């Protein structure tokens, strides 16, 4: 039996889009089809599978258990087909879409990505930054720089940087209270984002009991890189990863009053779908960034 008879590929493509977008209407818009045509293709694949794949509700659809099991496999299969065709064409000129946390993007990637572009001038780069963890099946991204423990189903992941944190502030702010001599002295100053759990971990490790962080005015700036700018401006003490701010430290704009650093087990990782592990542009970026951050293979 021909594969086209066994597997209705057009219907699978429609199913993949509807499952990824959560909407027959949006799937039709992406594929240039009417909603009626989308519904017909979904019906074909459901008849082929022998089970309903979607729960139809008023103005809403949801995957059934069978649909939830099938969707990631179909997405993976189409990604493999796309990569196979691109490889056969020798097509490595398509853009590499990198999703990164805002802090890693601004404090490391933006400063170093030029080296990758010089080494691979035929690969264009698009960088997007957000601290929200994206789904590769729903958003456009080839690779992601993630903060976490490094275990994500369906993804290959590689450690990039161990994340440690410690209080940092401007020397001028420290001098304004006669210097920082012991950890509790930090509480004399404004704490930038006292709701950040890093503060609780660090003060506990420093032996400071009951720092009363909950009673302080909150100041959520959204990303570590913004908190660092506020600290440089003398607006308070921020809890930061020192490796991201070598220039500010060298120029005396920031300093680390205590050697104590802590970790919450969430480090930086490179991640991408396992099905796309052999994509040339992904392999090129993986090899480059690992060599930059782990030159000794550590």
From TrEMBL:
Protein name according to UniProt: LysR family transcriptional regulator
Origin superkingdom: Bacteria
Coiled coil region boundaries: none
SUPFAM superfamilies assigned: Periplasmic binding protein-like II (SSF53850), Winged helix' DNA-binding domain (SSF46785)
One MF term in the entry's GO annotations: DNA-binding transcription factor activity
Pfam families: HTH_1, LysR_substrate
Membership in a protein family: Belongs to the LysR transcriptional regulatory family.
Lineage: Bacteria, Pseudomonadati, Pseudomonadota, Alphaproteobacteria, Hyphomicrobiales
Organism: Sinorhizobium mexicanum
UniProtKB keywords: DNA-binding, Transcription, Transcription regulation
């Amino acid at each position: 039996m021909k594969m086209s008879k066994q597997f209705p590929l057009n219907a699978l493509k429609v199913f993949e889009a509807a499952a990824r977008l959560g909407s027959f209407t949006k799937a039709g818009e992406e594929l240039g089809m009417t909603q009626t045509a989308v519904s017909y293709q979904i019906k074909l694949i459901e008849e082929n599978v022998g089970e309903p794949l979607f729960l139809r509700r008023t103005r809403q659809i949801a995957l059934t258990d069978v649909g939830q099991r099938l969707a990631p496999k179909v997405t993976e299969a189409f990604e493999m087909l796309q990569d196979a065709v691109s490889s056969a064409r020798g097509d490595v000129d398509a853009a590499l879409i990198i999703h990164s946390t805002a802090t890693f993007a601004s404090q490391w990637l933006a400063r170093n990505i030029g080296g990758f572009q010089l080494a691979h001038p035929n690969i264009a780069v698009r960088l997007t930054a957000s601290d929200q963890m994206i789904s590769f099946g729903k958003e456009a991204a080839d690779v992601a720089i993630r903060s976490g423990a490094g275990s994500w189903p369906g993804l290959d992941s590689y450690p990039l940087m161990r994340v440690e944190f410690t209080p940092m502030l401007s020397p001028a702010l420290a001098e304004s209270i006669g210097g920082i001599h012991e950890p509790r002295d930090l509480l004399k100053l404004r704490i930038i984002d006292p709701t950040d759990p890093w503060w609780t971990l660090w003060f506990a490790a420093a032996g400071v009991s009951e720092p009363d962080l909950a009673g302080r005015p909150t100041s959520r700036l959204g990303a570590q890189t913004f908190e660092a700018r506020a600290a440089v401006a003398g607006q308070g003490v921020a809890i930061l990863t020192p490796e991201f701010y070598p220039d500010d430290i060298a120029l005396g704009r920031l300093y680390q009053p205590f050697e104590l650093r802590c970790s919450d087990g969430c480090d930086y990782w490179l991640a991408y779908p396992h099905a796309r592990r052999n994509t040339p542009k992904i392999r090129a970026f993986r090899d480059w960034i690992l060599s930059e951050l782990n030159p000794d293979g550590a």
